[in-house]
């Protein structure tokens, strides 16, 4: 049963894709081909990661500019602030502005090892950029309301803070500083996510909350990423995936079913937008969208137009 048959078009979820920056210009060129193809899948936006400290910042800026102004995808640029020379922050924002990109995911990033006052290349760092909220304030002060600003949310805690209520307090500070949407860390425990959303709402956070979804490609990568992000793997995932762990095709098929079930449950609970961590790969994400029946080929022509971005819809 495809999802679009069960829901009217107004309840069909929209979706978006995250891409990370390859290490080389050649890798970027190869990724453009894939982005071109994935454009045909009708994502509402795509986002491009930022390497903490600003390594490869030129490639992120180039990709944001190409994707926004040449490929024509609504693009969101990630930007971290800790350990970042002020000039890199300035340049990145200016490049985004000049390319017409209006969406920034403002992040702290992870602090560099060693010296806190100068970056690896000796540039001056910005002492006031301690948390993501400091970057949000900076962007608002410099650019007013030009950018929509997203922030990271952690339904299962952050490696430096496991108390969910304390973290929700920090998330509220980010929204109060000017964030207009939230994208979450990946998770597989939907019940926990939905109760976390409710806690956020009860804490007065009213901006759109977008779930971050990591499709399952292989058993090893699934386990590695879940462990790295310190997230709970529900028992039914382990029960169903562990016995077939040696067969990548079976894992991908079963993983698709499990992830599509997650998505259906969230949509049934009122979540309208699904954000996929693609890991720069097409297949696993396409399989989930196919299973959900929300690929463009299933959508009647008159329904194809995307609604406004989640954070540009009136709540
Ligand atoms: P913050 O919200 O600033 O929080 C950082 C830590 O400080 C938390 O432990 C929090 O509890 C604590 N804290 C916050 N405010 C306060 C306060 N007022 N007082 C005391 N403590 C406080 N990393 C990258 O390098 N590049 C990326 O492109 C990238 N993209 C991401 C996308 C998403 C959707 C997510 C969820 C994460 C991403 N990350 C990325 C990882 C992120 O940079 C790390 O998780 C980082 O450790 C925290 O960043 P933050 O923006 O959430 O920080």
Please outline the helices and strands.
Elements: H1 3-6, E1 14-19, H2 25-39, E2 45-48, H3 57-71, E3 75-80, H4 86-99, E4 103-107, H5 132-143, E5 148-153, H6 164-176, E6 181-186, H7 190-202, E7 209-213, H8 219-228, H9 235-241, H10 248-268, E8 273-277, H11 283-292
Parallel strand pairs: 1-2, 1-8, 2-3, 3-4, 4-5, 5-6, 6-7, 7-8
Helix pairs in contact: 2-3, 3-4, 10-11
The structure holds flavin-adenine dinucleotide (FAD).
Protein name: Methylenetetrahydrofolate reductase (NAD(P)H) MET13
Pathway: One-carbon metabolism; tetrahydrofolate interconversion
Keywords: FAD, Flavoprotein, NADP, Oxidoreductase
List keywords for this structure.
315 residues; 8-stranded parallel β-barrel; binds flavin-adenine dinucleotide; alpha/beta; FAD binding; 8 strands; flavoprotein; Methylenetetrahydrofolate reductase (NAD(P)H) MET13; methylenetetrahydrofolate reductase [NAD(P)H] activity; oxidoreductase
In which order are the strands of the major sheet placed?
1-2-3-4-5-6-7-8
The secondary-structure class comes to alpha/beta
Helix content: 40-55%
Strand percentage, roughly? 5-15%
How many alpha or pi helices? 11
- Whole-number mean pLDDT: 91
| Span of the ends, CA to CA | 30 Å
Which series of helices and strands comes N to C? HEHEHEHEHEHEHEHHHEH
Give a short account of the largest sheet.
Answer: 8 strands, parallel, barrel
Number of strands: 8
- Given as residue ranges, the uncertain stretches (5+ residues, pLDDT < 50) are none
Rg on CA atoms, Å? 19 Å
């Amino acid at each position: 049963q495809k999802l679009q048959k069960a829901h009217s078009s107004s309840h069909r979820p929209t979706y978006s894709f995250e891409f990370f920056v390859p290490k080389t210009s050649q890798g970027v060129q190869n990724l453009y081909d894939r982005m071109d193809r994935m454009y045909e899948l009708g994502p509402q936006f795509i986002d491009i990661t930022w390497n903490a400290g600003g390594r490869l910042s030129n490639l992120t800026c180039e990709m944001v500019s190409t994707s926004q102004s040449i490929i024509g995808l609504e693009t969101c640029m990630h930007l971290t602030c800790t350990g970042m020379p002020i000039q890199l922050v300035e340049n990145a924002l200016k490049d985004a502005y000049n390319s017409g990109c209006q969406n920034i995911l403002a992040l702290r990033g992870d602090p560099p090892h060693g010296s806190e006052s100068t970056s690896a290349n000796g540039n001056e760092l910005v002492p006031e950029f301690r948390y993501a909220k400091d970057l949000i304030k900076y962007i608002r002060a410099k650019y007013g309301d030009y950018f929509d600003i997203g922030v990271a949310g952690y339904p299962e805690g952050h490696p430096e803070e496991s108390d969910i209520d304390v973290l929700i307090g920090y998330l509220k500070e980010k929204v109060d500083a000017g964030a207009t949407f939230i994208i979450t860390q990946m998770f597989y425990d939907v019940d926990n996510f939905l109760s976390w959303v409710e806690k956020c709402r009860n804490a007065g956070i009213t901006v759109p909350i977008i779930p971050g979804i990591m499709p399952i490609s292989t058993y090893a990568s699934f386990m590695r990423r879940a462990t790295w992000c310190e997230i709970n793997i529900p028992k039914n995932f382990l029960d169903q995936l562990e016995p077939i762990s040696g067969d990548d095709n079976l894992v991908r098929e079963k993983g698709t079913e499990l992830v599509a079930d997650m998505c259906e449950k969230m949509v049934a609970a009122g979540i309208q937008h699904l954000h996929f961590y693609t890991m720069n790969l097409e297949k696993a994400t396409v399989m989930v969208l196919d299973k959900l029946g929300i690929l463009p080929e299933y959508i009647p022509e008159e329904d194809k137009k995307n609604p406004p971005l989640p954070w540009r819809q009136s709540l």
